[in-house]
Amino acid sequence: MRVLEVASEATPFAKTGGLADVAGALPAALGRLGCDVTLVIPAYREAFAKGLSLEPTGIEFEVPIGTRRSAARILRCRRPESPATVLLVANDDYYDRPSLYGGAEDFPDNAERYIFFSRAAIELACRLEKPFDILHCHDWQTGLVPAYQKLLFADTPAVANARTVMTIHNMAYQGLFWHWDMLLTGLHWRHFNWQQMEFYNQLNLLKTGIVFADAVSTVSPTYAREIQQGPGGCGLEGLLASRADVLTGIVNGIDTQAWDPGSDPHIPRPYGESDFEQGKYAARVALAARLGHAAPDSRPLVAFVGRLVNQKGVELVIELLGRMAGGGRAHFVILGTGSPPYEDALRRVAAAFPGTIDLVLGFDEGLAHLVQAAADVTLVPSLFEPCGLTQLYALRYGSIPLVRATGGLVDTVVDTDPDTLRDGTASGFVFQGFDALALEHALVRALDAHADRELWRGLVRRGMRQDWSWDSSAREYLRLFERTCAVPPARVD
Ligand code: ADP
Ligand code: GLC
Which of 23, 230, 301, 403 could form a disulfide with 409 if both were Cys (CB 3.0 to 4.6 A apart)? Predict the structure, then answer.
């Protein structure tokens, strides 16, 4: 099976969130199952700064963008640890910028940047030696690929027989742009209708992908159900329900090499199940030093690592800190970056409790690993969460996830109660309602459990033993690809 993975970010090249982790690891996992995989991503400035060897391929072509043409130069990166080929689309006007999508405001030309990228990906597929069976697209940035394949490349042998799979990582980001950006796509205005590319007078790139793809997937079974209704579907619930026959939920795996407490270069002392207490203590000492403390304090360490946006339940964390930090039962570490009002509110609450709350505003991959290694409890109180990787990293690093019952968090964390302790399925703490009191109650339960050393050790060890590696998720993707290839492509007029 030849698979082209198309994504707007992938580790180790460029990352803003979990999509990069998935796009970075899935190609290698599919490769291990015998697929011949090529990953294509934009060649951002960040990718050049990583010290990876990016070689020219000699493939260069022009991509039509409205009435103009923009040049795409294709680079290749060989990575000994991955069997997948990685190709990067370089165009410095679009991608040589200080961030991937913009800062507090998105870049004003993001429509053009990703229309170009989607068109370049499919043009590139046409220039490679063998045809692909599957074009696997991730999120709105690649939503035009299925439309291009069906509408503009239906007679191009290299891609005409491929099936397209659109994977949704987050319904909250749909790539909505003003209608005149339709001109940049090169597609006929007749597709700008409410059943295809239009959403209330705007161009919607994720919707386009969902409409034109042969199969649609999202990153957990619970989220696959949630998005077929409001509010989870963010306005596209009707469309998603109409595609229920081809909509699957596959929980993400984690890269167990990059996230391995037994060999992680970001932590001071590697550890496993048998010596996690020593390993985590060493991580706490290192974290305390990094945060400017003379020594770690002895209270349980409660962590939050994530984007500071409304999806992640940041307001609950802020309220929780205000309510609990004075009580002295735990030490808190917050690592995140995002919306300025959340950053300001966190700064204020952290300043009020200097010995109890450590706040790091920024994106720091190594520190994220160290925090997970040091933490006893990792908070993921999301309003919604398509899959979530943070709770899976927490489990592997022996930090107990405390999550809200939504999306992929439901599919990956089992609440601790007498029954789940007895049958050995307990793996974390789960609360239902989106409010700070419910979060606080769950944290109090977790801290009470932490005080029972034997119970806690059992929880930690079982969590560390769980297998969230890509192997089984990649097998599910492969089955999805095989199913999709077995039926004729969806017809589009
Ligand atoms: P999302 O993709 O919605 O942000 P996930 O839980 O799927 O959520 O993935 C988040 C990823 O981004 C994880 O790898 C997490 O460690 C990382 N991450 C988020 N914020 C930061 C940060 N400030 N510094 C370092 N890593 C971060
Ligand atoms: C999105 C989601 C997150 C998911 C990630 C990778 O960013 O918000 O829940 O884990 O994509 O699929």
Answer: 403
Residue-range domain boundaries for the chain: 2-253+472-485, 276-466
Q: Which fold has domain 2-253+472-485?
A: Rossmann fold (3.40.50)
Pocket lining: 247 vs ligand 2, CB cutoff 6 Å? no
**Ligand 2 centroid to residue 477 C-alpha, Å:** 16
CA distance linking residue 347 with residue 468, whole number of Å: 34
Measured by CA distance, the residue closest to atom 19 of ligand 1 is 306
Q: How many Cα neighbours within 13 Å face the side chain of 433? A: 6
d(CA 363, CA 393): 17
Check for a shared fold between 2-253+472-485 and 276-466. Answer: yes
* Count of C-beta atoms within a 10 Å radius of residue 423: 9
Q: What is the residue type of 20?
A: A
Structural domain 276-466, CATH architecture = 3-Layer(aba) Sandwich (3.40)
Q: Is the CB of 214 under 6 A from ligand 2?
A: no
Find out whether the beta carbon of 170 lies less than 6 Å from any atom of ligand 2: yes
Question: What is the mean pLDDT, run by run of 10 residues, along the chain of 493 residues?
Answer: 98 96 97 96 96 95 97 93 92 97 93 98 95 97 98 93 97 98 98 98 98 98 98 98 98 96 98 98 98 94 97 98 95 97 98 96 97 98 98 98 98 98 97 98 98 97 97 97 93 73
The amino acid at residue 92 is: D
Atom of ligand 2 nearest to the CA of 167: 12
